[in-house]
Amino acid sequence: MTEDMLGASATTFLVLLFAHSALHKLADFPAFTGYVADYELLPPYLVTWVSRLAVVAELTIVAGLVLPATVAWASYFAGALLALYGIAIAINLLRGRLSVECGCGAITQPLSWSLLARNTLLIAITVLSSGVRGPIGLPGVAAAVAAGLIFWITYIAADQVLANFGRTPNRPGRLSEAARKQEGR
Length: 185
Prior knowledge:
single chain; mainly alpha; 75% helix; globular
């Protein structure tokens, strides 16, 4: 039962994470496609299609996580997508391209090793989510939703701290052109 509660809390967190991420991308899709292009991993003619595919993948994960029969599948898919995002981040970090904007969510963040560590932690959370095996009852659902929401709020606060670190005066030029336009610089 405890594993199921932990897994259900992780699932709630992931629903909030991917819903927030997808809605942010949809709210300013041209900026998101700019972030994808900034990674310089795709030929220009594929950028818009891959950007659309990323949003569809995230929304599919959200739908899969809210349906009990597909939670495990959606959790594995979420882990794979986060790993793919992590690979794209790592490639650019190894290239020394530190001014690329992550494009991960509402908070503007340049690529960093801490973002790669964050994605690794998020992948671990998808493993917890995939472990939900049985019903937890209405009180369990309420507790899991509350715990997942608290975890998500904590995550958003920590993400903001990471973003603020990337903007300190001793780290100039850390934001991509698309991010500077978004912030009005």
